[in-house]
C-alpha cells in the first residue's frame, strides 16, 4: 500500500531558459489550495507585468489528484501540458509551476515552445528541494478521565503522533497515523473498553 507522496519544501529559485531572444522564467511553489495558487499567479503577473504569457500547471492532492494546465494564449497544449508533464515526471504534488515568457520577436513554432516550457519547468524543479512525506489518517480518541492510563500506554506502545489533546473529565486526543497502520490502530482502540475512536476528514 502506497502511503507516501512527494512535494517540494519551499519556493524554487528563479530559473531562466532562453531560445532565440525569448526568455522563459521558471518558478515552482509548494501549494495546498487554489487560493494559494491564485496568489502566486497574481504576484508573478505584477512582477512581470511586461511579459507576454504566464503559463502554468498545478496538481493538488495526496491520493486523489486534481490538476490544471493553462497555455495562457500560447498554441493549444504547447505550454501548460509540457509543464504538467514535468510535474508527472518528477512525481510531485501539492505544487504549482509557472513559466513566464517574454517574447523575443522570433516565433519558435509549437515544437520550440514545448521544449522551452518543458525545460524551464524542469529547471525550476531541479533547483527545488524535494521531500517525501507520509500519507496520514487523523483519528480522535474519546474517553473518560479514568481511562487515561490505558490510552496513554497504547499511544506510547504504538509510538503514535499526538496532534492535539484535551484532557478534562471527558478527554479527547487527536492522533496522526500512517495510512498503512491506520486500520490496525483503529481496531486496537475500537476494541478497548470505554474508549471511542473515529476518523476525521481532513
Automatic annotation (TrEMBL):
Task: Please list the residue ranges annotated as the Impact N-terminal domain.
Answer: 20-125
Superkingdom of origin organism = Bacteria
Q: What InterPro entries does its record include?
A: Impact, Impact_N, Impact_N_sf, Ribosomal_Su5_D2-typ_SF
Family under the similarity heading: Belongs to the IMPACT family.
Name of the protein in its database record? YigZ family protein
State the organism named in the record.
Autumnicola tepida
Amino acid at each position: 500500500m502506497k502511503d507516501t507522496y512527494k512535494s517540494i519544501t519551499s519556493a524554487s529559485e528563479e530559473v531562466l531558459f532562453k531560445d532565440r531572444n525569448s526568455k522563459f522564467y521558471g518558478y515552482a511553489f509548494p501549494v495546498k489550495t487554489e487560493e494559494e495558487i491564485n496568489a502566486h499567479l497574481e504576484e508573478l503577473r505584477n512582477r512581470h507585468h511586461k511579459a507576454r504569457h504566464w503559463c502554468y500547471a498545478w496538481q493538488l492532492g495526496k491520493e486523489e489528484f486534481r490538476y490544471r494546465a493553462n497555455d495562457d494564449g500560447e498554441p493549444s497544449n504547447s505550454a501548460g501540458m509540457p509543464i504538467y508533464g514535468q510535474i508527472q515526471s518528477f512525481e510531485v504534488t501539492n505544487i504549482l509551476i509557472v513559466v513566464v515568457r517574454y517574447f523575443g520577436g522570433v516565433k519558435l513554432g509549437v515544437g520550440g515552445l514545448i521544449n522551452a516550457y518543458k525545460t524551464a519547468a524542469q529547471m525550476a524543479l531541479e533547483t527545488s528541494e524535494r521531500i517525501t512525506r507520509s500519507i496520514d489518517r487523523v483519528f480522535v480518541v474519546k474517553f473518560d478521565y479514568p481511562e487515561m492510563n490505558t490510552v496513554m500506554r497504547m499511544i506510547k506502545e504504538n509510538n503514535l503522533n499526538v496532534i492535539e489533546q484535551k484532557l478534562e473529565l471527558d478527554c479527547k486526543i487527536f492522533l496522526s497515523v500512517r495510512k498503512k497502520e491506520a486500520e490496525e490502530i483503529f481496531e486496537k482502540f475500537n476494541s478497548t473498553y470505554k474508549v471511542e475512536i473515529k476518523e476525521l476528514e481532513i
